[in-house]
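I am writing to request your help with a piece of structural work I have in hand. The matter concerns a single protein, recorded as an amino acid sequence and a row of backbone structure tokens. Could you please explain, in whatever detail you think fit, how the structure tokens follow from the sequence? Thank you for your consideration; the sequence and its tokens are set out here:
>
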Amino acid sequence: MWVEPISLEYKGWRLHEIPPNGQGITALIALGLLMHFDLAGMDVDSPAWLHLQIEAMKLAFADAHQHVADPGHMRVSVEDLLSEGYLAERAKLVNPDKATHFDYGTPKDGGTVLLTTADAQGNMVSFIQSNYTGFGSGMVVPGFGVAMHNRGGNFTLEPGHANEIAPGKLPYHTIIPGFVTHEGAPGMAFGVMGGFMQPQGHQQVVVRMGDHGQNPQAALDAPRWQVGRDGQVMVEPGFEQLGGQDVYDKLEAMGHRLRAYRSRSGQFGRGQIIYHIEDGYIAASDLRADGQAVGF
């Protein structure tokens, strides 16, 4: 099935994502909100820098979990959710000094495997295949042995919700291969596997590379955070080495409920990147997974 990607320009980088019923729009909303803040002028991995990104992702998920559904059943359009006016109004909700609980907005009418590849002719592909939790539904196609997915687990049972389970509907799903262009030309095929971590990983990689010029491997190796459905913020170790020993204390003082992890893990995403340069490519593979970058 061919779909038309949705995209958003972020400081010279245009991020392309799979449209709803996928969650790629979550990363685009978050980056659209961050356009209203000077991240490039802030210290990388500082509490204030992390805080703004976390708040933007919370706002983005509030909208995504309310509005993303089978495209034929969505009550607001992608264009409305990504409109400059709507994002500007939502960005005003961010308190730069304090964590906030956000509700969704209403725009005005108007087991995963990731592969990135590129060839000598400049063709680039970002591809994800996933049967979802527990390697799928546990059922196989008789006579073929093909395992079926269980993406229906992302429907909601809330009556009247755009994503309410019903016959013939597509559910909200999490698999979102990413692609970036520079001035219309292919720039980067990438992705960050990991359920609801995926748009969060997209945002964090694009901010590190787009705002701060980090190379692909450095952007993947950097510590990550993750906003949970309950608003709790999970953080990997490493920020204290980069942003100061008190980075976690300052985030908690802003009102974030943190859960610190002792080690890096695939729970915070598993990314792959191929980045186009003038005379070739730079490839990078996440330390949290068993992938690798290969040239041949």
The chain has one domain: 6-102+113-285. The mean pLDDT is 92. Residues 283 and 293 are 6 Å apart (CA to CA). The two ends are 30 Å apart (CA to CA).
